[in-house]
Amino acid sequence: MKALSWTNFALGLWLVIAPFALLYRGIQAALWDDVVVGLLIAAYSLWRALEIEQMIVGNWVVGALGLWALISPFVLHFSGATLAMRNNVIVGAMVTILTIWLAAHPWRHQHHRAH
Fold this sequence. Notes:
Blueprint: H1 2-21, H2 28-49, H3 56-75, H4 82-104
Helix pairs in contact: 1-2, 1-4, 2-3, 3-4
């Protein structure tokens, strides 16, 4: 099902927009982390959703990026900024869970073409 890849794409775009929409004031680590990680999640998820090429490794990259988004507030020391921390933990967890689902059920996500 491409819907899961499109959902990860949207979550990646949200990470890019979040620092500006949620006004992460003075938290440069959160801003840059969200923009870079969000762009990477969006790009890999878009690649997968459009089925440009069978890129199984892309699922693992998105999963790793989701895990990074989940732990980055603690590693980059912006966990004290509650809004930024909660956003990253929630989005990171969602991306990770969706990616695990995609990896665990690949047969449900294959594109079936008409003869």
